[in-house]
Amino acid sequence: MTFHERYAVGCAAVAVAALVTVSPTRAQAPTQPQEAALNAEAAQNDWPTYHGTYKSYHYSGLDQINTGNVKNLEVAWMHFPERATRGIQSTPLALDGVLYYSGSYSRIWALDGATGKTIWSYTPELDEDLVSKQTHSPYNRGIAIGHGNLYVGTVDGRLIALDLKTGKPVWDTKLLDSKKMTVGFTGAPLVVKDKVIIGAQGGEWPHRGPIFGVEGKTGAKKWEFLTVAGTEEAMKTWGGDSWRTGGGGGWMPGTYDPESNTVWWGTANPAPLYDWGGPDWKKSGPRPGENLYTTSVIALDPDTGKLKFYHQELPHDAWDFDSSVGEFVMIERGGKKLVVHANKSGYIFVYDRSNAKIENVWPLVKNINFVKSIDPKTGELIGRRDLTEGKVDPPLCPAIAGGISWNSGAYSPKNGLFYRIGQEWCMELTVEKTTPVLEPMAQLNLGATFKFIPPPDGPARGHLSARDPVTGAKKWEVNYKYPPLASVLATAGNLVFVPDAEGVVHAYNADTGEELWSRNNGMGHNAGIISYMAGGKQYIAVPAGWGSLVADEFVALYGEPFKSMSKNTGALVVFALRQ
Amino acid sequence: MRIPLVTVASLAIIWPWLSTVSFAQQSNPAGSASPPAQGEASPNDLDGRKMFSSNCGFCHQDGGRHAGRGPKLSKSERSDEFMIERIKKGKTGSMPAYGDVFSDAQIGALLAYIRGLDD
């Protein structure tokens, strides 16, 4: 055998060995979620999109871990991200046994889902000078996967695509002039067909809260929807030049209804947060009128970015109660296709999915006094308290952190229950008549000073309740001394997982609320919890790490354990059943 | 060392309101006939209390008299130099840097407001 012959045989042997050592699954590993998986009610082996699937249930169809064996759940592996300023606030994704997650400064890690071994990591170079001027920074709340890419937004206004297999940048598109506008992107993008959709931050700044549609393959911006006065109709709802005061950022990801080809997205409050216009708000104050499309749910055509329909949950929001918070839970009831959406005010809105007409509105929390009620048939605010300059009496409920925070609840299609965290707190408030901030600059635009206080019916607290998502009828409730701020996970194992503010992850029986398991992660949770399969085994992954803007309020409210809780650190903790 | 309030007040007087004025003169592209909303409020660029309400009250509660996301500021034992430096440079992950946003006169007005706070 000549050298060349030996070389050829050797190469062939290596090639055969390579075929043997790379598993068939890995060799044909998908680089994007399947449509069927995205459209399903339950996330199965993967967690392919921020809300689990487009149905937004935050529900895993896996049941290896269940009520019978959850007591055997233990830590499988951990990962510690570098530079976890403000903790970890993101929801991981999983695809084909690989777990992907983001940390502060939009850092990304791809990890072997079974072992935690790093496959690749990516650190974008950010405008650190700009970051230092931002209030809502440098955290990142999530990523998206599609078209063979992983997508992440940055606080300096870019959307970045990374090759899913290698982590190498594919494109990097500047969508916002963040140097001028201060705001950037902290929320997760959403992949819809050939597009990546992402909303800008901002309820407190003079910008127009755009939502962008970007071509996944090329990074080319295809459309931009201005949530502040983005149509002729909307422009008429801002007196004078007041549309320049802005706000309305779509700072959390919405979802997609493939049956009607509609993207549902929530928008933030207008600025300034607290308006002194009082009952005459249609004609006076810093932003006279309804201020469309702020504090609204909007339905967009993903191909064009055109508005199809909308519902403004709080016309002329004078209380900073965004519609940006809250998942869009797509359910069917009595032959009707519905969407359930949680508003920061503590009310849950139920919509007809075809046109955003109100089907019901019900309160998740007890302490609400910014309105007397909301008409469950029309959505009209009844007995609204429009504020004027000076001390607000009685104090406003809920407080600025909302009756509902930005992380998501969960819905189990198995028992039809909706699991949502509610917060009971109020605040003393003094409204100031300030000059509207009309020029984009690194300034907040609040128009008030405030102080958190307990509500009239007891201490400031939180609760998880299991309810009928359409009627709000409560089946069970668990109370917490400190409101949990992380997302909730429901599973086909008949479990509900709640990562709490003190650092404990709880697993409850989904039907009864009985606590079956808990584990202390050592620091509070601000992020999203998921489940996935790797190597035939079910895992539960939850980032621990404290320090969101709502979490920061806990020191003044409660003192310890939050006074001593580390803020700028975090860990991804992954659980599995003991062998 | 503390900056005398007289100095702060003097700085306050010379602050021009140019940015607000220039925006007030821009037209509404939608052609609305209603009067500009900003005409309803008086300029507050050097009113420390109003500046605080717009920018700082998000984290320093009760106008700075109570801790919140940020510390209580009334009766702070921190020096003026420290306060000015912190307003200008911020603190990563806790407080934005306002050095490029506020003039020295505005920062002086904010400091004067903070020093004048009772508990």
UniProtKB/TrEMBL annotation, chain A:
The keyword Signal applies. It comes from the Bacteria. It holds the Pfam family PQQ. It comes from Bradyrhizobium retamae. Residues 47-357, 468-540 form the Pyrrolo-quinoline quinone repeat domain. Keywords: Oxidoreductase, Signal. Its cofactor is pyrroloquinoline quinone. Belongs to the bacterial PQQ dehydrogenase family. InterPro entries: PQQ_b-propeller_rpt, PQQ_rpt_dom, Quinoprotein_ADH-like_sf. GO terms for molecular function: oxidoreductase activity. The keyword NAD does not apply. This is Alcohol dehydrogenase.
Automatic annotation (TrEMBL), chain B:
It comes from Bradyrhizobium retamae. Residues 1-24 form the signal peptide. Its cofactor is heme c. Pfam families: Cytochrome_CBB3. InterPro entries: Cyt_c-like_dom, Cyt_c-like_dom_sf, Cyt_C_IC, Cytochrome_c550/c551-like. This is Cytochrome c domain-containing protein. GO terms for molecular function: electron transfer activity; heme binding; iron ion binding. Keywords: Electron transport, Heme, Iron, Metal-binding, Respiratory chain, Signal, Transport. PANTHER family: CYTOCHROME C-553-LIKE. It comes from the Bacteria. Gene3D superfamilies: Cytochrome c-like domain (1.10.760.10). Residues 43-118 form the Cytochrome c domain. Residues 26-48 are annotated as: Disordered.
